[in-house]
Amino acid sequence: MASQVALLGHPVAHSLSPRMQNAAFAVCGLDWQYTAFDVTDVVAAVDALRALGFVGANVTIPHKQAAVAACDEADSDAVNTLVFRDGRVLGFNTDREILAGIDAKHACLIGAGGAARALAPALPEDTRVFTRSGAWPPDATGCDLVVNATPLRDELLVRPEAGQTVVDLAYGDGETVLVAAARAAGCTVVDGREALVRQGAASFRLWTGLEPPLDAMRAAVRP
Q1: DSSP class per residue in 135-157
Q2: Both 89 and 112 in a single domain?
Q3: Same domain, 89 and 123
Q4: How far is CA 146 from each of CA 99, 127, 129, 149, 164, rounded to the nearest angstrom?
Q5: 8 Å CB contact between 183 and 189
Q6: Running DSSP on this structure, what letter comes out for residue 70?
Q7: What residue numbers bound the domain in which 171 lies?
Q8: Nearest of 114, 115, 97, 120 to residue 202 by alpha carbon
């Protein structure tokens, strides 16, 4: 019987994670299956997965903060990866892997939800945070790193400048407006699909104990 891994979110129909993780399991010869579930009560959903014998899960919008309450142990106040081990639920933040290797001193962070909170430990001390309920519009002047941690795809949230690194967590069909502008400006870009692979690879490692097949994962999420 295949080992089961879930994605918990609302909505999840658009997610590329099942395609990516199932491709990774296949390449590694694992009899594992990754399935997306659209849920509104993430704590109840986690309890159900534990009872059903799932080995792990990912958590996405809007449940990353609420999922902490379902964990016996969590490494942050917003988690995106769950490991079920010895009857316990362990919560991890692999979103911070999206920023691994990026050396920045001044950052502009757009958003304040679970994704933004998960990335916060990996951001420089000098980070300006922008939300529609607070400071707006975003201002990336003088920043060497710009992070869009919202699902907004069709709005130019800031005007990128050469020399900046732009990380955009949003993805869908085609490039976001921000990513297209960043590429045109000559920025270093981590788009939503690459961000998905980076955090997903860390999740894969936590569940399986194996090194993730990055080439297969990248190929699975590209158009």
Answers
A1: S-S---TT-SEEEE-S---SS--
A2: no
A3: no
A4: 11, 10, 10, 10, 7
A5: yes
A6: G
A7: 100-190
A8: 97
Q: Are residues 126 and 78 in the same domain?
A: no
**Averaged pLDDT for residues 10-31:** 97
Q: What does DSSP assign to residue 174?
A: B
Active-site residue, 105 included = no
Whose tokens are 């809007």? That residue is 62
How do beta strands 3-9 and 88-92 pair? Answer: unpaired
Task: Note whether 141 and 213 are same-domain residues.
Answer: no
Cβ-contact 84, 54 below 8 angstroms: yes
Catalytic option among 7, 21, 64, 98: 64
Alpha helices in the chain (DSSP H): 17-27, 42-52, 114-119, 177-185, 192-208, 214-221
CATH of the domain at 77: 3.40.50.10860
β-partners of residue 89 are 84
Q: Are residues 170 and 122 in the same domain?
A: yes
138-192 pLDDT tens trace: 999 999 999 999 988 999 999 999 999 999 999 878 899 999 999 999 999 999 9
Q: How many domains does the chain have?
A: 2
